[in-house]
Design brief:
The complex is a heterodimer of chains A (141) and B (96).
Chain A (H helix, E strand, L loop, with lengths): L1 H25 L3 H27 L2 H32 L11 H14 L13 H12 L1
Chain B lengths: L1 H32 L3 H26 L4 H26 L4
Helix pairs in contact in B: 1-2, 2-3
The chains are: A mainly alpha (141), B mainly alpha (96).
Chain lengths: 141, 96
């Protein structure tokens, strides 16, 4: 029974890793490639380490396997976030079919609120409370 | 039954190692090809994560649970390398 479970976990982990590789090779955009690599590869590694913990069936091995799993699950989103923010701030181009880029709108709004705190700068005040607060901050300073 | 179970695990390990190797080649293709530096950093991060998975599969194939320590170290180095490369990309700025 445990052999069947271990084999199924191994094969599904390998499948998720293959999916991550195909996503990294085929996706059209750096950010899509990043999310494919992060999520699919993390799930694949989690499956494989769970298979190790089931296959050996000892407390020490299972503890170390779960430790590595927890470490990968904790650090992969952090690494993806850091590299995505760096790539966006450097100016890596998005896909041509991108429909919505909220971060660019946000940054442009913040920059316009910083640049001229004149009455023509309060266009975002009617739209969102977030823009109005940054606007009031810019006025007080 | 026991012999069948052993061959089942061996086959699963072989299949998983084959798929992880194909994924490794695809990540290496992106590492060579990648148009920008963050693409290469993402490919490097994926190679580190795949190395952890391959070590786990080889762990089962060779009945050596000691190799999990190597997997821990590889995961740690991959994470730190990705974060350091991201800092480097961010500091280098918009030069590319």
């Amino acid at each position: 029974m445990s052999e069947i479970l271990c084999s199924a976990l191994l094969v599904s982990g390998g499948l998720f890793m293959l999916l991550a590789g195909v996503g990294v090779a085929r996706m059209p955009d750096m950010f899509m490639r990043m999310q494919a690599a992060t999520k699919a590869a993390t799930l694949g590694v989690g499956c494989m380490l769970l298979a190790v913990a089931i296959h050996f069936g000892e407390l020490g091995v299972a503890t170390r396997a779960i430790l590595v799993t927890a470490f990968v699950f904790l650090t992969a989103p952090v690494a993806a976030h850091v590299i995505a923010r760096a790539a966006y701030s450097v100016g890596v181009p998005l896909w041509q079919g991108t429909l919505c880029d909220e971060l660019r709108e946000d940054r442009r709004r913040a920059r316009s609120a910083d640049d001229h705190n004149m009455p023509e700068g309060n266009i975002p005040e009617a739209q969102e409370p977030d823009g109005s607060t940054s606007e009031s901050d810019a006025k007080t300073t | 039954m026991s012999l069948l179970a052993v061959t089942l695990t061996e086959g699963a390990v072989t299949l998983a190692l084959a798929m992880a190797t194909v994924a490794l080649f695809l990540a290496f293709y992106r590492l060579v090809r990648g148009p920008s530096l963050p693409d290469r950093v993402v490919a490097m991060d994926l190679i580190g994560t795949l190395a952890v998975g391959i070590i786990a599969a080889y762990d089962i194939a060779s009945d050596q649970p000691v190799l999990l320590d190597a997997a821990t170290v590889v995961a740690l180095v991959a994470f730190l390398g990705t974060v350091a490369f991201a800092r480097y990309v961010e500091r280098r700025g918009r030069s590319e």
